[in-house]
Amino acid sequence: PRRVGILISGRGSNMRALVENAISYEVALVVSNKPRAPGLEWARAHGLPTWSQDSKGAEKEAYDRVVSAVLDEQSVGTIALAGFMRILSPWFVEEWRGRIVNIHPSLLPKYRGLDTHARAIDAGDKIAGCSVHIVTDELDAGEVLGQTEVPIEPGETPASLEQRVLLAEHALYPRLLNEFVCR
Ligand code: GAR
Questions:
Q1: What is the mean pLDDT of residues 97-111?
Q2: ipTM of the complex
Q3: The pTM is what?
Q4: What does the entry list as the binding residues for N(1)-(5-phospho-beta-D-ribosyl)glycinamide (predicted)?
Q5: Could you tell which of 36, 104, 177 is best to mutate to test the pocket of ligand 1, judged by most ligand atoms within 8 Å of the CB?
Q6: Strand ranges (DSSP E) for the chain?
Q7: What share of the chain is helix, strand, coil (3-state, %, to 5)?
Q8: I want to staple 88 with a disulfide (CB 3.0 to 4.6 A). Which of 48, 92, 150, 158 is the partner?
């Protein structure tokens, strides 16, 4: 379980936090479904094995079977989703059941899905935050492993809130992944 595969789609700041704070796991592979993801560049520059193939237009389960085989080839035991903006097929979730974790920018079960910060501000919430959870076939609904609360300030915008929640994500995710691979 200690060989981790990280799946990204973009910037990869959480991937970077996971790489830089790996204690009880090692990052075996970084996968992106977007070949131009900036996070891939960083991973390559840091000597990490990477794999990418554009998922656009691909048949969902067929694509996921390829990803699964690539992860198996690297003897990955645990998958960490880090800004992976693609819903995994039921086949993939079953194949890796209990071994996929995700970081989500809200205090689950509030605000599953997208635009979490705008929705929290619009609702008049006083507290936002982030959650790390186990991935199941229901979107953003698996067991929550841990959360960090971030206060919503007067005059908050989705962009300003995103910045502060992101810092909380970078601290929370490595801490919980280090624990998770040991359980
Ligand atoms: C993070 O805020 C992460 O929580 C969120 O996307 C961002 C990725 O940033 N994930 C989701 O919304 C998952 N549905 P990063 O690429 O810099 O880690």
A1: 98
A2: 0.99
A3: 0.97
A4: 12-14
A5: 104
A6: 3-8, 26-32, 50-52, 78-81, 100-104, 127-134, 144-151
A7: 35, 20, 40
A8: 92
